Amino acid sequence: MRKRLISGLIILCLFFTGIHSGLLLFLPAFGSNNESYALYYNNLLIPQRGHYINGTPYLPVSLIGTYADNPGVSVDTAGKRLVIDLANQNIMMADDTTTNFIKTYAGNIYIPLREIDQTLYFPLNTMEQFFKLSYIVSGDTIKMRSYSGTDKIAKINKNKVQAVSSLIDGEGDIMFMNLNDTVFITGQTDNYYRISAEDGSTAYIMKDSVTISDIDLSKIDFYAPKKTKFNRHGEKINLVWEYVDHISPSPQSDKHKGLDILSPTWFDLITNGDGSVENNGDKGYTDTAHANGYMVWATITNNMSTKGSTAFTTKTFNNSGLLNKSAAQYIFYSCLYDVDGINIDYEDVSDGDAAGLVAFTALMRSYTERQGLVLSIDTLIPRPWTIEYDRASLARYVDYLAVMTYDEHYSGSPDAGSIASLPWVEEAIEATLKEVPPSKLLIGIPLYTRIWTVDDTGKIISNPSAKMPDVRNIVETNGLGPVWLDKGKQYYVEYANGVNTNKIWIEDSRSISNRLNLISKYNLAGSACWQLGQAEEDIWEVFDGMLKKGKPMSNYQNPY
Known about the structure:
11 helices
């Protein structure tokens, strides 16, 4: 991405009594006791209280060993994490080959804890299979139920499915359930399954709305069945990366029609480590994204902004133990957080590691295919100094290759200029197409620019990155009249900054529409944007119009 610009079984969430599960409730803030949630275990109130934050229920670690029991899970209080040795867990991946790979190489995985009011809490939605607990969030309560081997476990296979509390005409209430909600089957009629609610009540749902699992989850610790892998069937797609440091932002509450895939930067190779991967995943983020119609492709990195990452990447590529461990952890974490794909973002790779990067990608591909996950990779534009990316070979192992067509002028550039002028972008696309099929190519779209401050000699004083809304505010506040640069296909402004001058090559609906036009011109797969937190909300209408509805770029020529 050159993106460090900031300088399985489905989760068990039941929908009963007409109340939405934890995916869609209001979101309490951290550290406020009056927003804590009452906890019930098998319909009995327990003294501890929990929290519910951005779609994830959090329970105090003091429950581990009693209500939440798995002898293979330990609490690392100092590291604020749970530790799970997968070699000693009864896990089932999509097939025996993947299961054996994970159990042999993944080793210890780590689940981050949240500290709230000086108390550590674990994410129940991430840990429910390990602790064999289903749950619902209802009002200000979190109700847990232990798995039972006597009930069949099933998932809802459609969205917004109706269930009824009684099969007698005119009696009972209607309830709504969502795609991938999990239910317990306790009986059946000719046309309906009877399902159980947390309060002991029953509901009925049409049989064709339910897919029954053939696995007894009360006897295994984690199950990740194969997903149905996404196929775009010729549709143009749009991905946006979302930068995550340690805590994921609140997930998108609405579906933007011009946006298909959220790609949070969740999993990083720990530099100078043992092959382990830093885990910043958030199951609530995935669940909310899915509920709103998004796919999630987790981004994995080699920690390129960390000192020593280049040398350790070389070491990892040349050490089968490190390589297999990192790959096994990437695969497992991706299944644990129920993502739909993996996006490889390995940067600052040594020139001599081109073959190593291909081998790593091929290794990942062998398991993403088994799990039904999409695999994509990010590369720099073709230049003599980017030979670490063997694009032709990489393209054989990935579903999509995103070329990072931005940072034409970057933070260390000797001259001020555009982040991505159109001729520069088009040249990069044409060069990449010599190695990569257009059906796999995603064009990089910047949702940021730079504010270049130069002195009267043209010397650069500073060039911080700027979000799209911030630039619009600068233009409006200062009453600036942007000038269209026809060669670069974007607007430009400059204005006084004391004795210096500020210069901005603007990213807006018109500049982006010109880049999206290249997708049609070269019949590319779609686009990939860096990054979500820097976009204007209405920019997705441009993607929707041009990628989904075939509107011409002339519809987006007047952004001011």
